[in-house]
Amino acid sequence: MPIIVNVDVMLAKRKMSSGELAEKVGITQANLSILKTGKAKAVRFSTLSALCKALNCQPGDLLEYQPGDEDNQEE
User: Is residue 64 helix, strand or coil?
Assistant: First the structure.
């Protein structure tokens, strides 16, 4: 998928554990793991906002677009 999720990068920069982030955001560790591995199909704006608040960052710090072969396929 051409969207790269950089939650792990921000966790390392903030010296925060996944469990601590999940608790602050109000999501399960399993759902955070799905997001971190890029397997999530969607992210609610409320969740994105809570992640940004907890990590003191901008949405662009968490999500990155990298074009690839999938961009050439019709959906």
Answer: strand
What does the pLDDT look like over 48-74, one tens digit per residue? Answer: 999 999 999 999 999 999 987 665 555
- pTM of the shown model: 0.85
Contacts of 64 (CB under 8 A, 6+ apart): 3, 4, 5, 6
What tokens appear for 24 in the block? 């602050």
* Residue 43 exposure: Cα atoms within 13 Å on the Cβ side: 25
Read off the pLDDT of residues 7-31 as tens digits, 9 standing for 90 and up.
999 999 999 999 999 999 999 999 9
* CATH code of the domain containing 14: 1.10.260.40
d(CA 15, CA 25): 16
Residue 73 located in a structural domain: no
Question: At a CB cut-off of 8 Å and minimum separation 6, what does 41 contact?
Answer: none
Q: Is residue 70 part of a domain?
A: no
